[in-house]
Amino acid sequence: MPKAHVASFGRFRRSHEFWLLLVILGLCAGLGFANAQFLTLQNLFDLLTSYAFVGILALGLLVVLIAGGIDISFTATASVAQYVTLSLANAYGANWISVFAIAIGIGGALGALNAVFIQKLRIPSIIVSIATLNIFYGLLIFFTGGKYIYSLPDWFATGIFWFEFEWGKDSSYGVNLQILALALAFLVTWLLLNRTNIGRQIYAMGGNADAAQRLGFHVFGLNILVYGYMGVMAGIASLIQAQLAQSVAPTVLVGKELDVVAAVVLGGASLMGGVGTVLGTFLGLTLLAVLQNGIILLGVSSYWSPFFVGLVILISVSATAWSQRERRTRSARA
Amino acid sequence: MSNASLRRRMVGLAGSGTVGTLLLLLLALWVVFAITIGDRFFSANTLQSMAFQMPELGILSLAMMLALLSGGLNLSIIATANLSGLTIAFLLTRYIPGSQGIAWVGIQALAIAAGFAVAALVGLLNGFVIAYLGVSPILATLGTMTLCKGVAIGLSRGNVVSGFPDPIVFIGNGTVFGVPFALIILAFCAFPIALMLNATPFGAKVYMIGSNEQATRYSGVNTRAVLLKLYVLSSLLAGVAAVVMLARFNSANAAYGESYLLVTILAAVLGGIDPFGGFGKVGGLMLALIILQVISSAFNLLNLSQFLTLAIWGGILIVVAAVPHFAGKMLR
Lengths: 334, 332
What we know:
The complex is a heterodimer.
Chain A: H1 2-13, H2 16-34, H3 41-66, H4 74-92, H5 96-120, H6 125-144, H7 154-158, E1 161-167, E2 171-176, H8 177-195, H9 197-207, H10 209-214, H11 219-245, H12 257-266, H13 278-297, H14 305-333
Antiparallel strand pairs in A: 1-2
Helix pairs in contact in A: 2-13, 3-8, 3-11, 3-12, 3-13, 4-5, 4-6, 4-11, 5-6, 5-11, 8-9, 8-11, 12-13, 13-14
Chain B: H1 3-15, H2 19-37, H3 44-69, H4 77-95, H5 102-132, H6 137-156, E1 161-162, H7 166-173, E2 175-176, E3 179-180, H8 181-199, H9 201-211, H10 213-218, H11 223-249, E4 251-252, H12 260-270, H13 282-301, H14 306-331
Antiparallel strand pairs in B: 1-4, 2-3
């Protein structure tokens, strides 16, 4: 048993996740040293709350990338789900269960539509999702006139605040809607990918779609599930984003799709399919969050924040590619 | 090449709109808009406004197309254009003398040259990271995109830099014998690139790399050098787009034209460029651009929302991409 532990740690030490973890720990130590505010519970809760939206979308995209596809229409899907759900809630009344049911339904349906185009018309996923991004978003703004919704149902605007506890003098913490949704999304995605038969099939299909088909996998059904899952995540993310922003702004989500792509691929998911882990996505997301947060806490002008993010992305992907190349040449020589 | 990627490539090839499909589509659109709009659609005014709007997207799409042909992608074109546009704008507004003269002309030329130099630097960075470090193009250019935007926002503090001398404004708004000058610039970009791709060894190598990079390298082509040059060229085209954009708006900003990014991919794929590389012609891209512009202008004349235009563009992309699938079914 201990031997197996050593072996699996050895494997972990060579993995992409290990290096990411080292970088993040280094960053955290440095930032904690430079600013006492960084390593506080307050900051942790703030970070989790504000990155929940990107995080939930990243988990959906992770599943799509592992399955060997790509989806960039999710910001438009989220905008549609958000607008329709909260308009209905305003007009007819609703509760937590019904708003999430509606948003999940809309997101899942739009996601599944992508899968139908990809599988039934044999169009590459990148083309389909660029097209559906424009279709969903264009129609949404056409029909709504791009008007914001400022008044949300009271219970929705208030949100939830569970397990409240006091810490120090006048700061109280609790699990809010964003943190709860993010934690659930991580749990469900981890279970789906690691503890279910379907999860193994998704990895296998992403590794080699032809082989999966010949083995008798139901490829069309799997794709409906994968793109539907992305849509469901977009639906959930859209609601917690509206709750945090306290409004529905149909034009602000579209354009953020590459932020999500960055988090997932920084976490080591391959665009070729078959590769990627929930832990990696968590670390990729953490790296981006810590970096952006740290820059602000260090007092650097927020105008320079994208510059440092870009620099870290470029260095991180270059280092990964370089180390893989080195390993290949070493094993070729041996 | 694995069976899977071979099949994906076949599907990609079949999924690209052929010139025939695009011409038929254009003809159909013309008939529909001739009926719904009438003479106004064919007026000189309409034609000229179309010709004014097309070049920016056209030049940026050419930049995207080059990367796509090699099996890559260049997400940094808009950010590059804005960074080099801001460089030009900064030099123009800071150093331009009040009176016209040699210095007045010289500073303008120098500013544009500096803009191209910035674009070339970004291209070198992209090319180096992709070709020599082996980073996948989507990741590398995602990084440089954020980096360039970061530098542009950091230096400009998100402000708009505006107010340029007449010759610069002419590039975006002037006409020569009724033809917008920007359209002439697009033609001066498109023809040499078409020639380069179809009639030079460099062009042949680009298509070969897009079809199978490994096989191309084993057949003795210095694929790294080709890719490096290709990404510099793609970046320089973004630099040209920068000049046209800042001239048309008479201003520059770190966030102009960001919605163009995915539209350039849409235009390229509609024009028959295989998103997995190896196939596609400049002619097809130009035809796709005309189709997109015709729809946009017609909807404008019909007083329909520009967002409906976006939705229709998306719909047309799916229809054109699905045509070979249905054609294949009919053949069987």
